[in-house]
Every structure is written in C-alpha cells, then in structure tokens.
Design a protein that fits this description.
Elements: H1 2-21, H2 26-62, H3 64-75
Helix pairs in contact: 2-3
Length: 103
C-alpha cells in the first residue's frame, strides 16, 4: 500500500511540475499573454498611423489644399504672389569673459 501511495504521489508531483513549469504550462501562458498584449498595443498604434496616412493620401488626391499645405510645411514654398519675410533675431551677448559670447 505504501508503494502505491508513494508512486501516486510521485506521479502527481511530476504532473504538477509539467503543469507549472513545462511546455504549455502556466509560466508560458503568462509569457504569451504579455506578448499578446504588447503586440495588440503595437497593432493599435500602427492602425492609427495607417489611418492618418490614408487621410493624408486622400487629401492629396482630392484637392490642392493638401498639396499646398505639404509644400509650405515640408519644403518652405510660398505661393506665386506672396511675399515672404524672414525675421532674424539678433544674437544676445552674454557677460564679458564668459567665453560663450559670439563675436
């Protein structure tokens, strides 16, 4: 009888070990759930980015306003009859002897 109980106890321990630490066990389940959560967040961010890019493409295809805005912001272009004024701030001189003053 003791041999049977000892054998069953060892079998139970072996099965519990596989459940908790083996392939497909609880530890792997937690790791995979964390990986799924991370990938879901990445997919959501990429979906938002794709939607924004689709809006940009649609705007560029349908009208000139999107093209004009892109030319102004990305390439610094101006319209034909516009005048462009560039205001340059004078450099501020620091206290003498600093070594940071530009002359």
């Amino acid at each position: 009888m003791r041999i049977l109980v000892a054998t069953l106890l060892l079998l139970l321990l072996a099965l519990q070990y596989r459940l908790w630490f083996g392939a497909g066990g609880v530890a792997e389940l937690h790791r995979l759930r964390a990986q799924v959560d991370e990938l879901s967040q990445t997919n959501e961010q990429l979906s938002e980015r794709n939607a924004a890019l689709e809006r940009d493409v649609r705007e560029l295809k349908t009208g000139t306003a999107g093209i004009e805005q892109r030319a102004r912001t990305d390439f610094g272009m101006i319209a034909k009859d516009e005048v462009f004024y560039q205001v340059v701030e004078p450099e501020q001189k620091t206290a003498a002897g600093d070594g940071d003053a530009r002359e």
